[in-house]
Amino acid sequence: MRWKVKVIVRLKEGLNDPEGRVIQKALRNLGFNVENLRVPKYFEFELESEKPEEEAEEMCRKLLANPLIHEWEYSVEPVS
Amino acid sequence: MVKFAVVVFPGTNCDFETERAIRKAGAEAERVWYKTSLKDFDGVVLPGGFSYADYLRAGAIAARQEIMEEVKEFARDGRPVLGICNGFQILTESGLLPGALRPNKVPRFICRWVHLKVADTETPFTQLYEPGETIRMPIAHAEGNYYVDEPSKVRVVFQYSDEKGNITEEANPNGSLLNIAAVANEKGNVLGTMPHPERASDRFLGSEDGLRLFRSMVEWARR
Prior knowledge:
Chain A is an alpha+beta fold.
């Protein structure tokens, strides 16, 4: 079966996100009152699999994220 | 004569200089494409550059290539494995060294000379340095901000310092935990360094301090 998988990988809470800090500063310079801006990575792909959740988890653990510094979440839905 | 492999991934760009520095230190060196086997070598060096364009995370994709299984065997056998800059990133991503290299605290590429305090002279890579000595090498990286869960368990080899060897916040170019610039595994035979010793291996480059790292490694591999 074919699935659409969406994965978000973000730095763990408390870890400094330099890219987020710069973007936040730029937004604040434009007059927006932004705080705690983080820049996660978003992946989407189609996956042929019998156990898509299990495989998505494995992909995060093995490559998409670095478990030492990242947390992740994913969603899976059938491709119609 | 001992012979070192200098592994080249797509995007590696410090391979020639590294090969030259190893030869100058008295060993044979050969640049090896990452799809080649590492048998017949006495040690491995993962040089600097931008493997796979640093897509995803620096070193992440190179770390998952088949050749790294052979590099892990070298590490297990106690043979020398050296990762410089991108090579250090590959070593942490592959689990051969603890920790992770995050984007620099000031979010840009930094290329400049730094001072380093030699914190551990008991490794195969630092045996020719004096304990507590201050040396000079250049750095050139965007992701050199070292992080680890349990710093007390890590074997710190170089720390960013001022000229006199003081470990200060001002001397820390990238936000690394405890000013860490280089770490070794528990046995000491795997070393990752963000500063580039090959770029400090000749007087005309501005420093020869990095050459002693290669000389230490070569001398140790000969035994």
